[in-house]
Each structure stands twice: as C-alpha cells, then as structure tokens.
Amino acid sequence: MVDFLPKTETLNSVLTEFISVQQTRPAVAVTIMGKTFQLLMQKSEQATITDWVILSLESFLQQEPEERALWTVTALLLASSTNEILRNLLTLLAHWRTIPRDKLLCLLSTAAHYFHSNQCLQPEHGEPVLKLFMNSKYASLRTLFT
Q1: How far, CA to CA in Å, does 11 sit from each of 40, 126, 130?
Q2: Model confidence, pTM
Q3: 21-32: per-residue pLDDT in tens?
Q4: What is the CB neighbour count within 10 angstroms for residue 131?
C-alpha cells in the first residue's frame, strides 16, 4: 500500500481502520500500523508520520471504553516512535486485553513523554499535544504530563 498510494491516503486508511469500533482483529491492525509506519520511516517520512499522529491524537484519545483509548493511544505512539526500542514494544500490544492496566499506563507514559520531548520538534506541536492529553475525559490520560 505504501508503494502504490499517496502517503496521506495510506496513513488515513491505516489509522481509520485501526481505530474503527468494528475492528475485530486488533492484533492484526496494530501489526499493520507498525509495519506501515516502519516503511514510511525508511522512506524518510517521519515528519509526515508525526503530523498525522498529532492530527489523529484527539480521535484516539476519545475512544471508548477507557481501556481501548489507553491501548490505541499507546499503540499509535509506540508505532510512530523514532526510538527503535519503543517501536519494538509494539508487539506487546498485540494481545491488549491481557496487559495489566498499570503496565499499559507505564508504556503509554513512556511513549507519550518520548513523543512530546523528541518528536514534537516544532513549538507549535508540543503545546497542542499537551492540551489534548490534559483535556481528555479520562483522568488516567489527563495526569500523564502532570
């Protein structure tokens, strides 16, 4: 898909499918998202990925129930990470219902702080990302940066 479609169409398709409430195979969806981001990174499209993450973050943060929001945001941030170690942790999320909440929050906190500190390189990116988390309807997301 990365080789045949424009990058914006590819990202839109992958992210839309990933957060779909009708998604019945989350393990497959998270793998596809991770591989798609990896291929785009190999084509030096990290800035495009970062922009799409920022644009998509609000939709991911609003997922219901809360556990799904935590999982989808964690997956998004791990898959888009410029840190290879964090990207490799994405495989842990394939079976998200078996991950204890405290471990998921730890992964999310690490990924969110890394994204904010290392990938929001333009000043106009960092503040909106913080505001999205701070304005979340879920207390667990609001407290990540406090």
Answers
A1: 9, 21, 23
A2: 0.89
A3: 677 788 888 888
A4: 12
